[in-house]
Amino acid sequence: MARPERRTVRDVRRGNRGMLLRTLYFDGPASRHELTGLTGLSAATISTMTGDLLADNIIVEAGQVDSDGGRPRVLLRVNPAYGHVIGVDVAETHVRVELFDLEMTEKARVDYSLRPSHHDIELVTRRILAGIDVVLADGQVPADRVLGVGIGVPGIVERGADTLIHAKTFGWDGVPLGALMRAGTSLPVFIDNGAKTMGQAELWFGAGRGAAHAVIVLIGSGVGATVVADGVVMRGSSNSAGEWGHTKIALDGRQCRCGGRGCLEAYIGAEGILDRAGVPTSTTDWPAALGRVLESDSRVIEETVAYLGMGLANLINLLNPERILIGGWAGLMIGRDLLPGIRAAALANSLAQPGNATSIILGELGPDAVALGAATLVLEEFLDTSAPLRLHAAS
Amino acid sequence: MARPERRTVRDVRRGNRGMLLRTLYFDGPASRHELTGLTGLSAATISTMTGDLLADNIIVEAGQVDSDGGRPRVLLRVNPAYGHVIGVDVAETHVRVELFDLEMTEKARVDYSLRPSHHDIELVTRRILAGIDVVLADGQVPADRVLGVGIGVPGIVERGADTLIHAKTFGWDGVPLGALMRAGTSLPVFIDNGAKTMGQAELWFGAGRGAAHAVIVLIGSGVGATVVADGVVMRGSSNSAGEWGHTKIALDGRQCRCGGRGCLEAYIGAEGILDRAGVPTSTTDWPAALGRVLESDSRVIEETVAYLGMGLANLINLLNPERILIGGWAGLMIGRDLLPGIRAAALANSLAQPGNATSIILGELGPDAVALGAATLVLEEFLDTSAPLRLHAAS
DNA sequence: GACTATAGCTTCAGGTATTGAACTAAGGAC
DNA sequence: GTCCTTAGTTCAATACCTGAAGCTATAGTC
Lengths: 395, 395
What we know:
- Chain A contains 14 helices and 16 strands.
- Chain A is an alpha/beta fold.
- In chain A, helix 4 crosses helix 5.
- Chains A and B meet through helix 1, strand 13 and helix 10 of A and helix 1, strand 13, helix 10 and helix 12 of B.
């Protein structure tokens, strides 16, 4: 029932230009000649379009390759210095702001620590805005060369006329972060759930590259997932799709911090694993404690493999992905030791056809990828529209 | 990472024409003037495009409405007699072939019963081909006025160069039904899983109309789901997405006929419910037996509500649909009596934000909708491309 | 019954797109 | 220095949507 939008000839250009840019971004550098093959466009179109992009300084020449017995090919690539993007990670204990060039090379970063239960929205907004000024100064990038700011936040991000954030652990209930940011900066702002931005980072720059159907599973103290269908992050009707952690795997099962019972998170979240192992809740160094459990407690290890395998099998059956990535600090620890067992458990619990079609691997990016993924939201918009910089810098 | 296809100006026309046709199909009849508002296209474009479609006889005039003090509006609608579509339901006990006009009014149907465990692919193919001839004769429709044949089959439908079908219960392991059909008819053939075609029918003509994000849940003796994201049926990487029935809801739970343990189907499939109620497996009239259980066995009722509510809550959390439809013969029986309880259980087990955003209702179409949905596959293709009839009638 | 207002619809020039074909550019081989 | 090969550009042809102007068909009015 997808009723597409009206289209005009200009949309054709926009779409083709976006495709060309994406091709150069991911498969570049490439010559005009190679681009005809990669994009399917004619040499004439490639010629005029690359001419435009060169004039706009969005792409630049990148040397030559001689072709045996003919005119050498001029390589083209996206100009990494054309613009910069900013990514922000709003987490339990810190606000981190990072500045990247278009190739996602980090140019500057700044961290502000937050005291637990001091997540006042005004404070967080001030930190973000201050952080933007700091990284721009450190990176010596003028504000009018910034394409936008992406922000990864905890909780559910409701996209509408105004972006509202519901984050129980922060005491945020419908906080209008988008409006607050617009009051403090003229840069375009993109906001999404931190687990989704991290998934987006893995999809674009990590182990998810090239996958059209994938699930990126994040296991930390909480558990979440980014579902990718047909190359696009699935959002659902109110942008809360991917809440995998509170999927129930048992009727009247273990108590979860969400208030429910039998949530997957209560079994395979870091807190759940430690609790099952009888580690006292007063422990502060969770990674170390989890490491000890994963080295010694064979019962807990066995259970963890079984529960995680079952959870992944459910994803496989329902979504039929070609690839599942396991990420998050706890996920990477678990996966490093137990991946073969997890794979076997997932296969045993899934139907044969989709089970065999799915590869289960570890994420490549560390837990620091939230800000990178948030910045990727800006990059995505830029590659699709290649909107000229002046437009928002002026506003 | 969606890398779109190259586009040309002709794609613009194709897309807009498809949109116009869809608009007329679902919101028609409408005048040219109204269509400008509904499609966003200019009056000039509407004029030329409707001119084309009228010349092709794809749309027809449908009376006039006088406008106060001006030229009356000429109403346009899709010509229901422009072409016909055929839908086929290949099930455990029968092969059913139905002929529809473009408005999906049934014009003829024929049923062939299959003996259990006589699902030889050659036999089934012969039945389908014979059925096509019969309904065309009965409906007095020449073969060159048929836009195509849609077939709903059990099992997993692997779409590739050749459509292969894996249906354990039929003993089909990679059966090339597409190729076999092409050998017997020149009509275009579309094949999909029967649960998906039924979901498609609900989405287009039943309780799913207008939903962009929905899940259509089918409960019969087996359990399946059709996941709709952004208006499109989700297929996954090998077209097996939607296998909800073998989602595990308990570690080492009830034995399922798939060989696994703890599958949702083993709890809320008709067979699973009857088994939990202690109804002997020799029972032949399942619907009657299920009816008795749902009237009298309060323990089983309570459990069923709990398990189904939990299963639905998992869908809500993971997919964030705006609507969930419960269908299938057993699903309709269960839902008729227990819907309020199921809603409450689903809400109790899901996160607040997506839970409140999801409405859970019953399907509108009976279990007969498999063939209708299969025919809809052809209709969908027609509305998108409005490919002239001659092309395939000639081949 | 002619005239006018009104609303629906069509035609046409103008602008934007892609494309194939012809053409120019740049290097190597003999 | 001529020819071959490969890379890239220019241009006429074709297709599309749109705004503006014009045409058509009705109701109301005198």
